[in-house]
Amino acid sequence: MKVPTLLGLIWLILTPMQILAEVPLAVEIISAKSATVVHEIKVVGAVEAKDSFPAAFRRGGQIDYLDAEVGRQLSAGEVIARIDATNISAALDAARANLNAAEAAWVQAEQARTRMDTLLARGVGTQAQYDEAQQAFLAAQASRDQARAMLETAEQALDDTEIRAEEDVTVIEKYVDLGEIVSAGAPVATLALKGKKQAVFLAPDAAGLSKILNHEVELDPGGTEAPFPSTITEVLPVLTSTGTVEIHADIPEEMSMHIPIGTSISGRSTIEVDQRIVLPWSALTADSKGPAVWVVDPATSTVSLKSVRVGSYNDKTVELTEGLVEGDLVVGAGSQMLFDGRPVVAGETMQ
Known about the structure:
Number of strands: 22
Distance between the termini: 58 Å
Domain Multidrug resistance protein MdtA-like C-terminal permuted SH3: 277-334
CATH superfamily of the largest domain: Efflux pump adaptor protein, beta barrel domain
CATH topology of the largest domain: Elongation Factor Tu (Ef-tu), domain 3
CATH class of the largest domain: Mainly Beta
Organism: Celeribacter baekdonensis
Strand content: 35-45%
Radius of gyration: 42 Å
Coiled coil: 85-112
Shape: rod-shaped
Family: Belongs to the membrane fusion protein (MFP) (TC 8.A.1) family.
Largest sheet: 6 strands, mixed
Number of helices: 4
Pfam families: RND-MFP_C
CATH architecture of the largest domain: Beta Barrel
């Protein structure tokens, strides 16, 4: 008699589960539709010079003048730095004296040649005497030309002891101090052309980010300056060392004069990404492979779990890039009681 009793007990246990499996569960059923997703991008960066370049000496030496504090604004022609020019000035004086002597010798040689030419024409001079005067003149002329070249070299050497601003600039970096010895080509400071600035942002790498190029962006420097519109001018194709994407936006010249280099600045823009299936957060669950949703078979009104790929999400919705097509029926609210094959009925339907 124990066997029938045991079978009866098993039947009593399984009967509710069978009934549960046969009774449709009222759930929210969503008809999946694709949509063009618009993402708002908010980033924080800093104001940098749009056009900057290093300033360096063409020759080495000890710095005896330096006017390159960060933020210093210099007009075109102003001296930024200078190295000791004592020896070079002495060489320049010697080159000038050498040229004066060479020019005097050239004048004398020219006069001697002219005189011998006159004597030869009158028949009281010889061709040999004229040829000798001509050779002396040519030698004096070569010496004069060489002295001129040496003077030009000495003058250039003196010019090379100074760094001058070729345009109106602002010092944004300084690398040396007064009294230091620098080598030729070593940067003394980094200069930025006055008035040309840009906002530089580092944004997380995201699909479709390159589409923001040439889009309008609202820049906000904070403080007393109001937000103003600009345009994204560059999205660098190579990730930075931190795995972010560098984005540039020009700052209008009328605004740049009020915003110093180094100012923190925020940017806000929007981009359209590819067509995606957008569902409420309540529709998302998971299986052993990762994110999944419950899909309703319209022929049998039963559900099955289907893997999906999440493109992005927020606190209300999730955007799917793979796994569903437009028209698929998906369970939203009420998915906690589901299992493969369970029948469902629409308690609430969303289009």
